[in-house]
Amino acid sequence: MLSERGDYTIRHGGPSDVPFVFDLGRRTVDDGLSSLRNAPASNAAAAFDRSVNFALSEPHTLLIAEAGGERLGFMLGLDDAPDDATGTPQLFCVYVAVEAYARRRGIARAFFDVAEKAAQAAGVRYLSLVVSEENLAARSLYAHLGFLTERRILCKVL
Length: 158
Ligand SMILES: CC(C)(COP(=O)(O)OP(=O)(O)OC[C@H]1O[C@@H](n2cnc3c(N)ncnc32)[C@H](O)[C@@H]1OP(=O)(O)O)[C@@H](O)C(=O)NCCC(=O)NCCS
Description:
With 158 residues, the chain is of the alpha+beta class. The protein has one domain (3-145): Aminopeptidase (3-Layer(aba) Sandwich). 34% of the residues lie in helices and 22% in strands. The protein contains 4 helices and 6 strands; from the N terminus they run E-E-H-H-E-E-E-H-E-H. The protein has a 6-stranded mixed beta sheet with strand order 1-2-3-4-5-6. Helix 1 packs antiparallel against helix 2 (41-57). The longest helix has 17 residues, at 41-57. The structure holds coenzyme A. Coenzyme A binds at residues 28, 31-32, 95-98, 103-109, 131, 135, 137-138, 140-141, 144.
């Protein structure tokens, strides 16, 4: 166990947690969809599957929150994904999600706390991720955690 927070614990995930990662990820991935594009939700689920499969095939960190044997959320990060532009080593957060009924209990904040400490202990000084402009809950979380906007992806509807 990595961390005990009142009514839930954070632990490292393993192969037996992978079905949960796919299930919760596919159920929440729509939150990151842009309303600018007219695309079926199935595309987002397929893109999610690709990114998770890639991350699991590389050095990664998988954290699981659980209470009473029930999984409440996960965070999946790529341990060795240097920033393209600068080449600086970074932990790249592929996805984080918490079951709807378990939100606003500090679970996502606890994931980042554990992941940041592990990255720092390994000498990694940056943590990076991509978030959809319209995902206000996630943007608020990242602002709360001290993330700064480094680049923007722009889109013009033609
Ligand atoms: C984004 C998400 C992971 C947050 O998980 P969570 O466990 O509820 O977040 P926490 O409880 O740790 O929140 C920490 C802080 O983030 C901010 N925050 C989190 N959710 C918020 C929301 N819905 N609205 C406003 N602020 C929010 C708050 O500042 C919160 O602190 P507070 O509760 O003391 O005010 C969760 O809403 C989720 O799973 N969303 C669907 C999947 C998703 O969009 N993932 C992000 C992909 S980039």
